[in-house]
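Follow-up to my earlier ticket, as requested here are the two runs.
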Amino acid sequence: MKFKAVALASVAGLLGLAALTMGTLPASAQLPQEAAIRKSLGERLSSLPKIDEVNKAPVAGLFEVLIGTEVFYTDAEGAYLIRGEILDLKNKRNLTEERIAKLTAIDFDSLPLKDAVVWKTGNGKRRIAVFSDPNCGYCKRFEKELTGMKDVTVYTFLIPILGGDSPDKAKAIWCAKDATAAYRNWMLEGTTPPRPLGDCATPIERNIELSRKHRVNGTPAIVFEDGVRVPGMLTADQLEKQLVASSKG
């Protein structure tokens, strides 16, 4: 495991984290610092994206800065910005990793599965949801990895975010007589989905809003039944390991 820092944080500063005792600031100390932190970071780093949240960090004297699904740390004045991991050495826990997992978790049962293209292997008792763009190369690779999986139901939410003809392909797939076959034939064989005849209502805009709600910024994004979300493709072996882990969660 390693710590990483942006230019504003010195190596000495990072090493100093190891000497801090694990703890939290009282809730009353958070709010007075937030405005100063936002103002200072915004002035010192004009290119910094919008800060979504400022919270107390699990180390005394540090604050968590949340930007999208990325977690940074800063001091009470916003003079330093640290990109790295906080490791609880006593309990052998990666607190940053746990925090990100919590931030990115998605309640599987809340997903509008009626808006997904569905297919399954075997009894389909193990479920995953995938956010996918029909022109995403890694999505196509992941679809191939899925072909050898056993007893899995796959719910694919089409989100044409890559531009080009992605929206047209997504609509053609959904509007096909057999959306599942159209999707898989395109992803696995490169067979262009037939053009839809006449008007056809699709859930694509709802899917895009869903992806924005959950801060899905790339494809594929894989969601497991225990809420764990994995950005990027997985091999069949990696997927199997996560399916087993999620079933125990």
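Run two:
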Amino acid sequence: MKHLPLVAVLAGVLLAGCGVIKKDSAAGRITGMQEAANPQVLLLGEVHDNPQGHKLRFEELKKRVDAGWHPVIAMEQFDHEDQALLDDAVKGCVDAGCVIRVMNKKGWDWQQYYPVIQLALDKHLPVVAVNLSRANASKVVRDGVASSFDAKTVAEYRLGEPISADWRKAQENEIRTGHCNMLPDMMVPGMVDAQMARDIWMAKLIRDQRPRDVVLIAGNGHVRKDIGVPRWLNSFGSKLTVKAVGYVEGGGQKELFDEVRTIPAQKRADPCAKFKK
């Protein structure tokens, strides 16, 4: 889960089975015996700074694609406002490094995402930017969840109504924990709104890709079934088959995902040191 920095807020596997594999070109998915293994929406989480998790996730995605699946790749790492630039980059670049340079998006360890982007280029998979820009997230902090959406989206996701208290409380706990329980109380509601707006944008843009299948590359917080993108994905409209996979340090948290991939904990400095200052 990637939260707004304090200063910004204050400033405003698929294994090839036996039998015949058929590919539905309209949906970009495999049918027949392997259909159950490739959902319409596959949500692959991450711990942002854990290279082993990135490696394991890429290997899982590559197995599926090499077996014939051709989903859209939706990425948290790119802001949806930059989709036109991303389209030009994917069309004009022959390697992932070129795409990364064109997008010039700071704040991510792009070495970890290079293989995913290169796979998309090599296999001609569309890449969709699904995050909310920092500027627009700051606007949500000030003006509420509905402020970044058009009237149709507000109606579809019922954003004119209060979001259930348990949902907001769970997101609030994540925000507080993610900021070492050192956020001023007055800042928490706005940051919860921004996090929810990100999840809604991801869900909306994933739905917009239909009838193609979609793989979401995002932080574990976004792919959680209880509070993240899955909860928004099927909040209206036809039900999609969704599979959420968490890449979790040390394992556990099985109730939060459909499947958990245990990864070794990354050695890191005290993440709360910057807040203690």
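The only thing I checked on run two: The two ends are 22 Å apart (CA to CA). Let me know what else you need.
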